[in-house]
Amino acid sequence: MSANELTIAAARDALRKGDLTAVDLTMACLTAMDAGDELNAFVHKTPEIALDQARAADARLKAGDAPSLCGIPLGIKDLFCTKGVPSQAASNILRGFKPEYESTVTTKLFAAGGVMLGKLNMDEFAMGSSNETSCYGNAVNPWRRGNDETALTPGGSSGGSAAAVAADLCLAATGTDTGGSIRQPAAFVGITGIKPTYGRVSRWGIAAFASSLDQAGPMTKSVRDAAILLEAMAGHDPKDSTSADLPVPDFEAMLTGDIRGKKIGIPREYRMDGMPDEIEKLWADGQAMLKDAGAEIVDISLPHTKYALPAYYVIAPAEASSNLARYDGVRYGHRAKLAQGDGITEMYEKTRAEGFGKEVQRRVMIGTYVLSAGFYDAYYNRARKVRALIKRDFEFAFAAGIDAILTPATPSSAFGLGEMASADPVEMYLNDVFTVTVNLAGLPGIAVPVGLDRKGLPLGLQLIGRPWEEGDLLNHAYVLEKAAGFVAKPEKWW
Amino acid sequence: MLDLTYTAPTPKVISGAKHDWELVIGMEIHAQVSSNAKLFSGASTAFGAEPNSNVAFVDAAMPGMLPVINEFCVEQAVRTGLGLKAVINLTSAFDRKNYFYPDLPQGYQISQLYHPIVGEGEVLVEMGPGVARRVRIERIHLEQDAGKSIHDMDPTLSFVDFNRTGVALMEIVSRPDIRGPEEAAAYVTKLRQILRYLGTCDGNMQNGNLRADVNVSVCRPGQYEKYQQTQDFSHLGTRCEIKNMNSMRFIQQAIEYEARRQIAILEDGGEVVQETRLYDPDKGETRSMRSKEEAHDYRYFPDPDLLPLEIEQAWVDHIRETMPELPDAKKARFMGDFGLTDYDANVLTAELDAAAFFEAVAQGRDGKQAANWVINELFGRLNKEGKSIAESPVTTAQLGGVLDLIAKGDISGKMAKDLFEILWTDGGDPAEIAAARGMKQVTDTGAIEAAVDEIIAANPAQVEKAKQNPKLAGWFTGQVLKATGGKANPAVVNELVAKKLGL
Q1: How far is CA B300 from CA A372, B5, B111, in A?
Q2: Measured between alpha carbons, how far is A95 from A440 in angstroms, rounded to an integer?
Q3: Shortest CB distance from B64 goes to which of A206, A325, A328?
Q4: B239 partner at 20 to 30 Å CA-CA among A299, A369, B2, B393?
């Protein structure tokens, strides 16, 4: 087994025992990263930073002063601002942008001894479910449908993160999740991804998509790794007014594997018309696994679920239309070449037309529309009311004693790149049907790989937890992971 | 404390070609909050810094940067609200006002549309002794200032300076209770005075720290009273908003012009179009900036980067307990404690440091006399030299010393003025200077009597005239003062002259 294939937990132990050095581990990842160019997962490689950090990690390991992620090579989603390193949110409008500051999350990861291999591909400004809206071109899923060489999507928006972790180009990666952007790609590539409670992880230094929904989280090879990485990422940040001033528990210590007596809710509204029977079966299998572990399976109702997707596609674009107004060509990033006589209006129009891709433009227009005079109450305000009702649905369920809610993570396995190109954008938006409710309610949600479909592609289930109880949620996921015994890896073709 | 009761002033009436018209005016004052740091960043607010030197990442709207509220700016807004006797909202919230302009890096201004921090209050605007307009305040909200666009540095390029970007402003919105250009200026003056007393805005209009948007409409006499009874705006005329004025004079001129423009339109059978206008002080006219149809759709929505702003009543109470004495109270106290006239009390309370100066001089002395000296001698001299009270070379102790010498009868009024001059230019202790320079008036009746006798004896013709016309006795007093080199106490001289002449 090559070192880059290790989990964080395994590498951590090997590093501490002296069986492995951080530099060797990093070199193994850098080699894998270069060999994985066909996956188009890394869009900016930072080997020099990685090796500097690895050497520093080795010194700390030697000194017996090793923090939790000491020497662990990570990939960072391009949405995170990393000081002096291109941070473009996969958008042409930020071409060449190198921030003068380091995001809170990456600052924490580096402080914990993490090693940055480079920046990871994603949908432009995290808007997309297939990684196809990236200005770098799409990342590719390391999984294939058996011998079929059709290139598949790694999901989105954190598609580069998903592909890199699944293909062992790094030990783990950061993702961000506004409507499912961690959980859907994690499910599509057979890894674990957790979106924490809104406010658990600082948003400072992460280019904003929809501020009230965005949360960063880990994408890892195991639930234990998710616990380790989340603990390093989380915590109160006075620079983010929406960050919660709560202590971060030792998540890893909460992985007891004991969920006896816990109540698992199965929301009937998540049983969609036309749901593939493979997903149905996976869901039923997951219920059986948790039941076998001593949990009680309870049918529950989350009655406003069907309004979640429309509400999400009003609120998220509304916030995005405002958040993306700053990309105007005045101060940084791309500015269009102007013709003689062009004024400020032409500068804005040309810069934004050239800099933003189609999907971003579509969402900016939707968002502008739903906030405009005369439509505000019908769309934005109504969506906010729906959001409050969705949140209340969950509150009722938890108040009734439910500990976690089990749902499918995605309505299908990974689809082919380009397959949705001619489809109505709404079909693409349907990918988020199981995940957006969690963002709207601000809850923690985790995707865990549970099985393979007929074509040999990974399928995941989602567990939704109580607010601020990521530890308990991770423990449920840990039980599911153990019971599912998902060990499949994509066959290396790249 | 003296209870001041007022009657409302009569509204300004403008005679058109056909009818009489009244004005209805409401104002939005943008007051820069006195604070060292910006509303949502730690960047400095110092005026006059090198362009783009006071800019935090969040002010420049760099990707991923987030606003964090400056608690002191909130405190200043609360203090202002309390100073305007307003409702303090313990829960308020910030909204985004979206529009594109190069000096607005975020592409939106963070403001408080739906839930302002301060609710209804009032300002008492005095228009003369016993006459005042009570102007209702609708709300005060906190918001970010924009940066500065500079269009005249290059023929083809515009430049932006973000130093002012994100500086905290209070927008103070009045009801349409102002009834003329003079009232409008008086309202701004009073508001500025209160803000300066509170220390929440320095009120420097030249630097743009206090700017006014003025809403002007005209109506026929009687209509306003109907509006007042019903609060139904349909009784009033269509208004135009004149934006961004930073001079009391321009505010009055703009209102006067705008009212006459609207009257001319209405009397011609036309309709006033609701629009935003700009005042051009060079031409003395307002002109259209944008019509209602062209108005921006600001797409306000709650800022998701900021949680609702919750403050505690105990904190508000604490701010209330540490409030300074405000102009109305100070004026009443000056009139009550020192017996000042309405006029003098107004003059002395206009600025806080002048009031403090007066009070220090007046303490334990004759208040009226202190007021006369501060207003006539000190202010007169300061004005002449273009100095502020803080720059006064004469201290409160020195001026007080002069007044003490007068009160004791040691020096005459004329000597006191000379002494003041010396203190102004050379400084020193008033009593010592008076002694050193022999500035001591003679009150010894014996010495004065001798002088009076001498003058009477030498001028028999004048004596006869004065006996027929007692008003001419003053001539003898003047002669005696002259003969004694100004040192004789005039009151004593007067008395003796009258006695000797048998008047």
Answers
A1: 8, 42, 9
A2: 31
A3: A206
A4: A369
Under 8 Å between Cβ of A192 and A186? yes
Restricting to A residues 196-215, those with a Cβ less than 8 Å away from any Cβ of B are 203-208, 210-212
CA distance B203 to B352: 13
As for the ipTM of the complex, it is 0.96
Q: In whole angstroms, what is the distance from residue B142 CA to residue B110 CA?
A: 9
User: Is B149 an interface residue toward A (CB < 8 Å)?
Assistant: no
Which member of A181, A222, A243, A321 is catalytic?
A: A181
Token pair belonging to A320: 């995005």
Instruction: From B262, B296, B320, give the residue that closes a domain.
Output: B320
Burial environment of residue A287 by CB neighbours within 10 A (0 to 12, 13 to 18, 19 or more): middle
Name the residue among A319, A360, A297, A68 with its Cα closest to residue A203. Answer: A319
Same domain, yes or no, for B427 and B309?
no
Nearest to A453 by CA among A190, A129, A166: A190
Domain count, chain B: 3
Residues 6 or more apart in contact with residue A390 via CB below 8 angstroms = A302, A304, A305, A307, A308, A311, A437, A440, A441
**CA distances, B43 to each of A104, A282, A443, B423 (Å):** 20, 54, 35, 44
A181 is catalytic: yes
Instruction: Tell me, yes or no, whether B281 and B330 share the same domain.
Output: no
For B162, which residue in chain A has the nearest alpha carbon? A331
Do residue B394 and residue B475 come from a single domain? Answer: no
Q: Decide if pLDDT at B493 tops 90.
A: no
Active site residue A161: no
C-beta atoms of A322 and B299 within 8 A: yes
Q: Report pTM.
A: 0.92
Contact A242 B304 (CB under 8 A): yes
* Interchain CB contact of B147 with A (< 8 Å): no
Question: Phi/psi of residue B450, each to 5°?
Answer: -60, -45
Are B356 and B478 in the same domain? no
Tokens of B127: 């228009």
Residue B2's pLDDT band (cuts 50, 70, 90): very low
C-alpha span between A188 and B452 (Å, rounded):
118
What is the rounded average pLDDT of the residues B219-230?
Answer: 95
Rounded to the nearest 10 degrees, the angle between the axes of helix A308-323 and helix A358-371 is 100
B113/A contact by beta carbon, under 8 A: no
Domains and CATH numbers, chain A: 1-494 (3.90.1300.10)
Domain holding B486: CATH number?
1.10.10.410
Residues of A in contact with B66 (CB under 8 A): 203-204, 239-241
Helix, strand counts (H, E) of chain B: 17, 16
Q: What is the dihedral of CA B407, B409, B414, B420, to 10 degrees?
A: -50
Question: A241 at the B interface (CB within 8 A)?
Answer: yes
Q: Is A157 a catalytic residue?
A: yes
Tokens of A316: 């998220």
Examine the domain organization and report whether B480 and B417 are in the same domain: no
Tell me the mean pLDDT in the region A8-29: 98
Q: Which residues pair with B124 in a beta bridge?
A: B134
Parallel, antiparallel or unpaired: strands B13-15 and A445-452: unpaired
Pairing of strands A172-177, A115-120: unpaired
Cα dihedral B459, B461, B462, B468 sign: positive
SS3 of residue A357 by DSSP: coil
**B313 token code pair:** 């009543």
How far the first Cα of chain B sits from its last, in Å, is: 45
Cβ proximity of B193 and B67 under 8 Å: no
Tell me: do B103 and B53 sit in the same domain. Answer: yes
**B63 and A344 in contact by Cβ < 8 A?**
no
Environment class of B445 (CB within 10 Å of its CB; exposed 0-12, middle 13-18, buried 19+)? middle
Q: Could you tell me the residue range of the domain that residue B497 belongs to? A: 445-501
Clarify whether residues B398 and B481 are in a common domain.
Answer: no
Give A380's contacts in chain B (Cβ within 8 Å).
301
